[in-house]
Design goal:
Number of helices: 7
Mean pLDDT: 79
Largest sheet: 5 strands, antiparallel
Order of helices and strands: HEEEEEEEEEEEEHEEHEEEEEEHEEHEHH
Number of strands: 23
Radius of gyration: 30 Å
Helix content: 25-40%
Length: 406
Amino acid sequence: MIAALNRAGTAHRYHDLLDSIGEKLTPHRLAMSTVTDPGTTTARSLPLPLSVGERAAPIDWAPSGEKVAYARVYSGRLTAREPTDTYRRGRTGEVIEANGKVTSVRVFTHGTTTEETTAGPGDIAKVYGPAHVRVGDQLGSPDGLPSGGFFAPPSLETVVRATEPDQNAQFYQHLLRLAEEDPLINVRRNEADRSISVALYGEVQREVIKGLMLDRHGIDMVFEETTTVYVEKVEGVGHGLEVIWQNEFAATVGLRIEPGPAGTGVRYRIEVEPGGLPAAFHKAIEETVRHTLQQGLYGWQVVDCVVTLTDTAYFSPVTSAGDFRKLTPLVLMTALRAAGTTVHEPVNQFEAEVPDDTVHAVISRLAAARATIDHRRTTGTPPTRPRTDGNPLNRKEYLSHLAKRV
């Protein structure tokens, strides 16, 4: 009897201990809000913007085909049946915004168990509905988006196609879905010949993509010859200007382009009065600038430059955003041609640890591949080698060496 009671009591205390540990480790929700117009009759308490994702956020699909994202909430709250904007950095550094609506939010409570409820700070949730969400996106606000990715852009590219021509249409859609799951997969389509290209980091990634397409969708794919992806960088300063009624479109656009700091992508600035042009027209110009610079004077993407809007004009109600979208590439290419560009090949930086007896052979091979050898500080006792200069560190030894040379 007593032994049985002791076992039961021990088990009870054991489960109490586990429950207590679980409670201590469970993040508690905090009241995250801000006050607008404090001290006035219009003061309101509003929840802080939601800040989700950018960390681990895999993408999945429900049986109905609806997209499902796994997201962690850092502030604010995420509620079903509410509009939710998503934000990410584009390849040229711009913030890409997409609009969507959350249809359901299921919060993880115990392991894999989920509960339909509002997600608050510290929660990890399955978010149903947003059609344009991708891995790494941030929901609710663009504040705090990283300036760049954790990996350098891929330096290889290859044209791909389905082995069976009648599968090419669905093949492209499946590739796009794969790119949504993995930010390291970059797919683009050539609108002229409808060919599909995939940017790659290497041969291993190529085999992974090929295997996923075959296993998931039963589509075998063919990779054409892999080619190097180059970039163009602006050399000088160039300016382009097209004036309304002196061109084919009802708009005036003036742009200046110049080199920017390394690693900053494309930076867009405005020198004109912001209110002098409707917001939709400004958006059309900026989006077109970034799209146009994906192909520079030599056909490669232009990076690390600053584009400044210097002149604008329109005539209402004739002018539309389409006028600015169609005119901007002409102006930008005029400016880019005046500035000039140079083509740069990709450079990979890595550390190599090799056995001492192979250092000479490795360095020779690297030099043949046009590698630049850098050095890092050694650890422990510094290695030495015999001196051949008479050792001027030691005066007596050095003078003796000079005397022998006479």
